[in-house]
Amino acid sequence: MFEKKTIITKPNAEARDVDELFAGKIFRVPDYQRNYSWDKKIGRIFGMTLKKA
């Protein structure tokens, strides 16, 4: 019958800035998560973690 073929594609991995990654995109936060918030300290730690990655 038909011959089964496997197609392998390489991922396109390239370094990007966080700003570039999220630019022009709209993110929707579900209703059940809207009441959750971080204080300034947690936000600062999160930002530093992203910069190190």
Walk me through this protein's architecture.
The chain is built from two helices and no strands. It has 53 residues and is mostly helical. It has a domain at 18-52. The termini are far apart.
Q: What is the secondary structure topology, with strand pairs?
A:
Elements: H1 18-22, H2 40-52
How far the N terminus sits from the C terminus, by CA atoms, comes to 50 Å
SS-based structural class? mainly alpha
Give unreliable regions as ranges.
none
Q: What's the main sheet like?
A: none
CA radius of gyration is 20 Å
Average pLDDT: 82
| Count of distinct strands | 0
Strand proportion, as a percent range, falls in: under 5%
Measured as a percent range, the helix fraction is 25-40%
- The ordered string of helix (H) and strand (E) elements is HH
- The number of helical runs is 2
